[in-house]
Amino acid sequence: MENKKNVGRPRKYDNGLARDYDNQSNYNQLYYEKNKENRRLKYAEKNKEVIECDCGRSIKKNKYENHLLTQLHQRFLQKKQLNNNIINFS
Predict the structure, then answer these.
(1) Among 41, 50, 59, 74, which residue carries the largest CB count within 10 Å?
(2) pTM: predicted TM-score of the whole model, two decimal places
(3) How far apart are the C-alpha atoms of 67 and 52, rounded to whole Å?
(4) Contact status, residue 22 vs residue 8, Cβ threshold 8 Å
């Protein structure tokens, strides 16, 4: 059996759970509630940015990846590739 390196502070266990489990759980819950509004505002501002796609569509930043999978965008890429092929053969 390999010797494992001890990382962090040792914990005292009661019934399989660390004794400070409830304290940490409460802290996480309070931190989440306290910073919920700040995170929402941060991402709301970030997602308001509008990006101009190659196909000519204006899309919000958070919807860009989904837009790349749409039929509209795929048709644009096919037409672009056909135009490139026609230009290369001429």
Answers:
(1) 59
(2) 0.48
(3) 11
(4) no
